[in-house]
Amino acid sequence: MVQISFQTLLANGSQTITDADGDEVTVTATFNGGFIPSSSGSHILSDWSWRTRGIDLDPDSFTLSFSKPVKDFTFEINDLNSGSFWQDSYEIEANLDGAPVVTDVALGTSGTSATYTSSAGNSPETESVTVQGPFNEITVTSGAAGGYHGYLFFDTADIGNVVCLTAGTLIETKNGPVEIEHLSSGDLVVTKDNGLLPIRWIGKKKLSKPQLEKNEKLRPVRIQAGALGNDQPQRDLLVSRQHRMLVDSKVSERMFGRPEVLVPAIKLTALPGVFVDDTVEEIEYFHILFDTHEIIYAEGTPTESLFTGEEALRSLPPESREEILAIFPEISEIDYTPRLSRFVPEGKLQKQLVARHLKNNTPVLRSCRA
């Protein structure tokens, strides 16, 4: 999941991110109206005025433009409510090269023009917005001409998916296979490169049936037992779409000059026995962090631990980022450069890699242990 900061966009007018395909995407923002950063620095808000007690007559809007079409864009609009002197409302329009794209919202009306007007006297509400796309421009307008409206909060927006393992997954440890939800910081886990290493941090996030129905991209990829070759995985393995699995083959060695590379699970769905599981009604995702990016064994199969790259950390909730920064303060240093444990090919090459395995009828894992 790649995170966009509204604070950064307001301050700089743009932000460069790296999408799930490994491509750089520049997000350019145009703000019209009274948007300012919050005093806490965690979000931006519209229409703040001490003279009008936070209400405003003129509509405010912002437009985000992307240098490349993006998918699975999500964000929240906070503090939607109405009072004696104001009534919050919004309109959202997204498009791909000028052609309207559907925006899905939880509270209001979805469509190529998603809208919502808060009820009189209601408590502050939070609207969840999803644009599956692809799209390359989105405009959000707060309030309507001729009516007062209050301020709204915007924190971050996400592109892509969570990157993690799921509850019930067996992780190889000093004491044998242990379900991931029973692991804790300090537990010793088997790694491919460095033997037994202690977990430094473990986090989790539970997604409900409505959340999965709202954003199909949050559903996990199921890798059936034996689908990767050499009886791997040993049992069915469920991972998030962008969670990277190790590929170890002669095909990889011919293509990249190295036998082992990491590939997101969603790219492996071209293989028999690997697919997005739309029957899952709710799921709990887990992150495991070590001192460095590691290859661990999930259901006997080599896969990655949490990577502390900037975009990966931005995909985590604020409280999780704070916990990790307390353990690894060096991450916040300007010259900090995290190292991936294995090479990650760019998106097009990942697709070619999988296609060549299919063409040659070659398993993507020729062995499961070093």
Automatic annotation (TrEMBL):
Looking up InterPro entries in the UniProt record yields: Hedgehog/Intein_dom, Hint_dom_sf
All copies of the Hedgehog/Intein (Hint) domain together span: 163-309
One Pfam family, short name: Hint_2
State the source organism's domain of life: Bacteria
- What name goes with this protein? Hint domain-containing protein
